[in-house]
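About this split. The held-out portion is used to measure sequence recovery: a designer receives only the structure tokens and must propose an amino acid at every position. Recovery is the fraction of positions where the proposal matches the reference. Here is one held-out target exactly as it appears in the evaluation file.
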């Protein structure tokens, strides 16, 4: 996070206030102990956040809920499509460092993708899966040209899913599944 230093500073100040107010509460007036308790709780939550445990806990709850929803999807619900992997940052510096590293990898991947598109664009069109639409049908279903790159395909998929999702007024389950199948046909996953 970009405010880690500020949060650490506030946590230190709150921790100091907790110690001072506890001493004042024990020596002068026990009613001040309540205020010390509030600062102590605030300090704990700041520590919990800075340690990355809060993000990890939240992520685990989301994953458990997603696993339960996936089980419900098999019983007649709908899946929302591909899910991108995410790891909670351990601390702000590591997260920024990994983003910078990924940026360098993405540049290299961009060059590789260009080479693949130049040489392998024909391969993608020739690839036919045993189930699902052909690549030509998939491009047509997403409203794309056959020379569209992966980011364009992903963008078109997200827009189309918003239009045909069964939870919308104009959506239908059949169209939703067709859009998902088209996306799965065209992606390199």
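Reference sequence for scoring:
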């Amino acid at each position: 996070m970009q405010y880690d230093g500020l949060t650490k500073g506030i946590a230190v100040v709150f921790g100091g206030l907790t110690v001072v107010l506890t001493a004042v509460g024990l020596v002068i007036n026990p009613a001040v102990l309540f205020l010390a308790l509030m600062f102590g709780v605030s300090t704990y939550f700041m520590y919990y956040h800075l340690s990355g445990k809060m993000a990890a806990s939240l992520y685990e709850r989301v994953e458990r809920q997603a696993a339960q929803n996936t089980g419900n999807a098999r019983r007649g619900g709908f899946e929302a499509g591909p899910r991108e992997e995410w790891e909670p940052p351990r601390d702000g510096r590591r997260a920024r460092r990994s983003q910078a590293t990924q940026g360098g990898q993405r540049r290299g991947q961009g060059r590789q993708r260009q080479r693949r598109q130049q040489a392998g664009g024909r391969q993608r069109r020739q690839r036919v899966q045993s189930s699902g639409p052909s690549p030509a049908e998939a491009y047509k279903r997403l409203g794309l040209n056959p020379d569209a790159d992966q980011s364009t395909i992903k963008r078109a998929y997200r827009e189309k899913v918003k239009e045909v999702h069964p939870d919308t007024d104009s959506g239908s389950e059949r169209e939703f599944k067709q859009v998902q199948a088209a996306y799965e046909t065209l992606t390199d996953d």
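Annotator remark: The longest helix spans residues 92-126.
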